[in-house]
Design a protein that fits this description.
Elements lengths: L1 H13 L4 E4 L5 H17 L5 E7 L4 H16 L4 E10 L1 H6 L4 E4 L4 E4 L10 H24 L5 H8 L4 E4 H6 L5 E2 L1
Parallel strand pairs: 1-2, 2-3, 3-4, 3-5, 4-7
Antiparallel strand pairs: 5-6
Helix pairs in contact: 2-3, 5-6
Length: 182
């Protein structure tokens, strides 16, 4: 009960600012919570600006793509959505940063971009199906990342191949993966 009251007080203190802090892994429950809150704001304040601040280690590609599409839906509904990275927007968090109208990074924030990972077990044919689906997901993420970047999908793929590609705020802006540093 006290936690709910504190959440209500925090929202009241924020007024109409509509700032959602996504400081968690990208998973079904965190995405569902975020989408529910953003949906409430959208219904109660049509067209109001929304900011989503990410400090996330990343997580599930499919859950992240659901949130990515939902953020794009909010933009299409007339909300100006600012996505912001503080600390880190890693893996799926870096992809989610791309969903905003304006992509902001803290001066000391980092993006992590890397290949899709998948854990497979079972029969060889099942594992092959899993690898093929992972390739499809990876191509989708490359398309999202390259959409506003100065790099092509192939250039991004070369940079993340077999390693983690960390970008500081300046490098992210230079690559077209963020718009503003604060």
């Amino acid at each position: 009960q006290p936690l709910r009251r504190r959440e209500r007080d925090n929202r009241a203190a924020a007024g109409e600012a509509h700032v959602f802090k996504f400081y968690a892994p990208v998973e079904a429950d965190t995405v569902q919570h975020c989408m529910a809150e953003l949906g409430r704001w959208s219904r109660s304040s049509p067209g109001a600006p929304i900011t989503i601040t990410f400090n996330s280690p990343g997580g599930s590609v499919l859950d992240g793509l659901a949130l990515f599409d939902f953020i794009r839906h909010l933009r299409a509904a007339g909300h100006h959505v600012t996505t912001m990275a503080l600390g880190r927007a890693a893996s799926m968090g870096a992809v989610l940063l791309q969903a905003g109208d304006t992509r902001v990074m803290g001066a000391n924030a980092f993006l992590l971009i890397h290949e899709v990972s998948n854990q497979s077990n079972g029969r060889v044919s099942e594992m092959e199906d899993g690898v093929e689906f992972s390739r499809r997901l990876q191509q989708r993420l490359l398309t999202v990342l390259a959409e506003r970047a100065v790099l092509t999908s192939a250039q991004i793929q070369r940079r993340w191949s077999r390693k983690d590609w960390w970008l500081d705020a300046g490098e992210a802006v230079d690559a077209g993966l963020a718009d503003v540093i604060f």
